[in-house]
Write a structure and sequence with these properties.
Largest sheet: none
Structural class: mainly alpha
Low-confidence stretches: none
Oligomer: single chain
Distance between the termini: 30 Å
Shape: globular
Number of strands: 0
Mean pLDDT: 94
Length: 345
Amino acid sequence: MNKTRFKELDALRGLAAIMVVFFHFTMGKNQADLGFKLGTTGVDLFFIISGFVILLSLKYVKKSSQFIINRISRLYPTYWASVTLTFLVLLFHSFYFLDFSKVSIVEYFGNMTMFQFYLKIPNLDDSYWTMIVELLFYGFMLILFHFKLIKHINKIGIFLTLFIVLMVHFQFENIWVKRLFYYMPLIQFWPLFFTGILFYQIITKHTNLTKYYGMVILCLFSQISLFDYSGYSKKFIDFWEYAVMLIFYFSLMTLFVNGKLKFIINKPSLFLGKISFSLYLIHQVISTEYVIPILSGKLNFNFWFSSGIALVCSLILATGITFLIEVPYSKKMKNKLYKTMYKRL
């Protein structure tokens, strides 16, 4: 399989990241009503893409330890760099204004684990909330891979999708259901991840397409039905806006697997896709708590000019993290972990 065939996914990652960025820039402001509030659903597109990529990743590993190493080396260098930079900005603010209410060393190290949700430690940047959802998904797929259950992923996926929908709509007032939904946030977005898995099979198997598209449609309606129970979108958009955005994302993926999305592939979109992870992680606190408020508030610059400067700053920081940290150190970490693993063997 030629991986270059999937450049569309890089472009879609870039689209999702930019949507989230402008959603945060305009959040709580009148400009959000210009359509930017719809960017809250950018994470939904990220989750679909993650579902697609997971089977591709598992195809190239033979052991569970390889998958773990690949995921750790892919996520943590970029994440650590972003958390550290955000912490340093908050620390500078604390020393400059002698106000240490926004930062603590405990929060920093808690965030560095990526498991701050379970440690009951606040996110240094609100964008980090999706990381535990991704980790839970990787963990679930790792279990299926380890016990050789990936071949049953469609049956498992359909069962979980239907179970989640029925559980939420008929038993959500049950305290144990609420706790499960809260402490296992993957449940809230499972249909999206499973959709990505289905699209991967559509593009690779080319058989039983009616069955696969039928399951995709089931996932679409299932996720839409979870609107009132999942994520943060319900705080910013209504049910129909969410439904339209999901239909849009599912349509993009359908075009992609049918080879009809190549028009989005260009240097700018691929570049945004390349830096999308770091851009997603680094943009919010620095832009919305410092750059934009200082420029538009204290210096009285136009909001859009201030947002443009914030975007440029975010792009520069994301580019630096990607090419100075992610690209070299992800590879070094992977090689180091592989050597350590093989030495033990």
